[in-house]
Amino acid sequence: MILPIIAYGDPVLRKVGKDINVDYPKLDELLENMWETMYNAHGVGLAAPQIGLPIRLFLVDATPFADDEDMSAEEKKQLDGFKKAFINPKITEESGEEWTFNEGCLSIPDIREDVSRKGTIHITYLDENFKEHKETYGGLLARVIQHEYDHIEGVLFTDKLSTLKKRLLKGKLSNISKGKISVDYRMRFPDMKKRR
């Protein structure tokens, strides 16, 4: 089932997510709905707060980035077919050079900005079978994971922008929170009367 994506301005996007356990109700159904919702909106990642749940869960499918002609063969190989659910993740270390990339977010449509992030991350997480993993990611994969991880920490990519940039975006962000935006996927706005 395709779920509405929560728009900028909703308090759930500012909550630090809570860990879940193996008994979380209907987890398989939730994951299935989140994948369907993400693909319907043409996203490469989706975090539970973006569908209204303040829990530590996000999905990543980096496969679309593998089509980028500017990628090296090694990067394409790393991104192609990378599809994972991250449950109760914890980034234990961020290292390497900071680099800038133009980011966007399904909860903040029509806004894309350059964001600087560290190049490498170490992360522990549980998969959908609650099997523990400790992994290291770099480059674009690390960035997508960092972006989604921020969501379960109550952080949005716009928080990482300069004060001036935030001021320039204030009107656009206000319009998004009021539902004054046209998107081709379902959204839920802080003003509950504005549904699409």
- Distance between termini? 15 Å
Counting structural domains, the number is 1
Output the radius of gyration: 16 Å
Mean pLDDT: 94
CATH class: Alpha Beta
Provide the β-strand percentage band. Answer: 25-35%
CATH topology: Peptide Deformylase
Please mark out the parts with pLDDT under 50 across 5 or more consecutive residues, or reply none. Answer: none
- The CATH architecture designation is Alpha-Beta Complex
- Helix proportion range: 25-40%
Reading side by side through the largest sheet, how are the strands ordered?
A: 2-3-4-5-6
Order of helices and strands: EHEEHEEEHHE
Walk me through the structure.
With 196 residues, the chain is an alpha+beta fold. The protein has a single domain (5-188), classed as Peptide Deformylase, CATH 3.90.45. The protein has helices at 27-40, 73-79, 139-152, 163-177; strands at 5-6, 45-47, 57-61, 83-105, 108-126, 132-138, 187-188. The strands form 2 sheets. A 5-stranded antiparallel β-sheet has the order 2-3-4-5-6, with helices on both faces. Strands 1-7 form a two-stranded parallel sheet. A hairpin with a 2-residue loop joins strand 4 and strand 5. It is globular. The mean pLDDT is 94.
Could you give the topology of this structure?
Blueprint: E1 5-6, H1 27-40, E2 45-47, E3 57-61, H2 73-79, E4 83-105, E5 108-126, E6 132-138, H3 139-152, H4 163-177, E7 187-188
Parallel strand pairs: 1-7
Antiparallel strand pairs: 2-3, 3-4, 4-5, 5-6
